[in-house]
UniProtKB/TrEMBL annotation:
Reaction equations catalysed: O-phospho-L-threonyl-[protein] + H2O = L-threonyl-[protein] + phosphate; O-phospho-L-seryl-[protein] + H2O = L-seryl-[protein] + phosphate
Superkingdom field: Eukaryota
Entry keywords, A to Z: Cytoplasm, Hydrolase, Manganese, Metal-binding, Protein phosphatase, Repeat, TPR repeat
EC number(s) given by UniProt: 3.1.3.16
GO MF assignments: metal ion binding; protein serine/threonine phosphatase activity
Annotated compartments: Cytoplasm
Alphabetical list of Gene3D superfamilies matching this protein: 3.60.21.10
GO CC annotations, alphabetized: cytoplasm
Enzyme class: hydrolase
Family designation: Belongs to the PPP phosphatase family. PP-5 (PP-T) subfamily.
Upper lineage: Eukaryota, Viridiplantae, Streptophyta, Embryophyta, Tracheophyta
Domain Serine/threonine specific protein phosphatases stretches: 129-405
Cofactor(s) this protein cannot do without: Mn(2+)
Descriptive protein name: Serine/threonine-protein phosphatase 5
């Protein structure tokens, strides 16, 4: 293969692992490439930007077996090599697990319930998950979310339940309380979390890794929608970026930003209940097919359907008006009614706003706001809520709850310094 520059190698690796584009390399060539990169890391200058790697001839069969775990003598997978190569060479940090690490561990590539429980217990005791396992979870989530449509249909069998939660905003101990009140996510007890998992609360890393881990454990146990705070601009200001940098590393700032772009924008429960973080649209006639067709793999735009799904709010008067937030719009009961009629739906469930009781029913009973971060930012005094829908009638059963104590780490502890002055 001759000499490859660092940029050549990055392009190949990005294409292969992050975009599933195998046109650059066959698996044997990739195997040789990765092993030679690793050899060069061990024996050459650590300045990774100025030298080239000469990919030396090697035993294709041996290296392919090594990387694909095909050889009985060597227990290592492609993922193992990627964790070492990407972690050590590209991002300049080790993903090796130190002998003294006693926290939760993923055995192989399978996220189990025992792992998630151990991880949550560690988080409750303010212990960190090793970066290696955080890395595995985030990469698994990326692959899983990338395959989903922008609008996900959820089927709830008769006599079964689905629980819908609103904003959590980094309030990990209140998330744990939800699970204690309503049971852990499982195939028999599924949840839909409706965006704004992170920011403001100072346990956002714990929240997002817990939700992601449950999704990795059992994809049908938990559904995740994007909120307006799953974006670079909001994370930079309201704390998540700083928290990730503090608890994990700079690498994970970019990883989470990318994965957030793959989160679906909305869900429909049994073809009857439309669930979205923000709200509805500046024009009539939007169909579910239009939402499915949105190219969501980007940072939220400042206008258009995607923006409005993430940012809009209901208003008491009919029609439409400007948003108090400066993004999206406000929409009345007539807008909600026409959207439901156009799409043969019964109800809109959204989040995005603090409510004193944790929820509010508006628009002649056709729209419910649910917010699941009680005593928001340790100062609002509101309750939290979640909604249980039982099939086939899907009548909403709203459960409210109060805040629970958490360690003495203030909200916005990792936020932009200018904002912290006013906290």
């Amino acid at each position: 293969m001759g000499e490859l520059s660092c940029d050549d190698i990055k392009l190949c690796m990005i294409s292969y692992f992050f975009f599933n584009d195998k046109s650059f390399l066959c698996v044997e060539e990739l195997a040789i490439l990765l092993i030679n990169i690793y050899i060069n890391i061990l024996h050459h200058d650590r300045d990774r930007s100025h030298f080239t790697f000469h990919v030396r001839p090697a035993s294709v069969a041996f290296v392919a077996a090594l990387v694909t775990n095909g050889g009985a003598a060597v227990a290592i997978s492609v993922e193992e090599v990627v964790l070492v190569v990407l972690g050590t060479w590209w991002w300049g940090e080790s993903t090796e697990v130190e002998p003294q690490y006693l926290g939760a561990k993923i055995e192989g590539d399978v996220v189990t319930l025992d792992f998630v429980k151990k991880m949550m217990d560690d988080f409750k005791n303010q212990k960190c998950l090793h970066k290696r396992y955080a890395f595995q979870i985030v990469l698994q989530m990326r692959e899983m979310l990338q395959a989903l449509p922008s609008l996900v249909d959820i089927n709830v069998p008769d006599a079964s339940l689905l629980t819908v939660c609103g904003d959590v905003h980094g309030q990990f101990y209140d998330l744990i309380n939800i699970f204690e009140l309503n049971g852990l996510p499982s195939e028999e007890n599924p949840y839909l979390f409706n965006g704004d998992f992170v920011d403001r609360g100072s346990f956002s890393v714990e929240v997002i890794l817990t939700l992601f881990a449950f999704k990795c454990m059992c994809p049908s146990a938990i559904y995740l929608a994007r909120g307006n705070h799953e974006s670079k601009s909001m994370n930079k200001i309201y704390g998540f970026e700083g928290e990730v940098r503090s608890k994990l590393s700079e690498t994970f700032v970019e990883l989470f930003a990318e994965v957030f772009c793959y989160l679906p924008l909305a869900h429909v429960i049994n073809q009857k209940v439309f669930v979205v973080h923000g709200g509805l649209f500046s024009v009539d006639g939007v169909k579910l097919s239009d939402i499915r067709a949105i190219d969501r793999f980007c940072e939220p735009p400042e206008e258009g359907l995607m923006c409005e799904l993430l940012w809009s709010d209901p208003q008491p008067c009919p029609g439409r008006g400007p948003s108090k937030r400066g993004v999206g719009l406000s929409f009345g009961a007539d807008v909600t009614r026409r959207f439901l009629q156009d799409n043969n739906l019964d109800l809109v469930v959204r989040s995005h706003e603090v409510k004193d009781e944790g929820y509010e029913i508006e628009h002649d009973g056709k729209l419910i706001t649910v917010f699941s971060a009680p005593n928001y930012c340790d100062q609002m005094g509101n309750k939290g809520a979640f909604i249980r829908f039982e099939a086939p009638d899907l009548k909403p059963n709203i459960v409210t709850f109060s805040a629970v104590p958490h360690p003495d780490v203030k909200p916005m502890a990792y936020a932009n310094n200018f904002l912290r002055m006013f906290q």
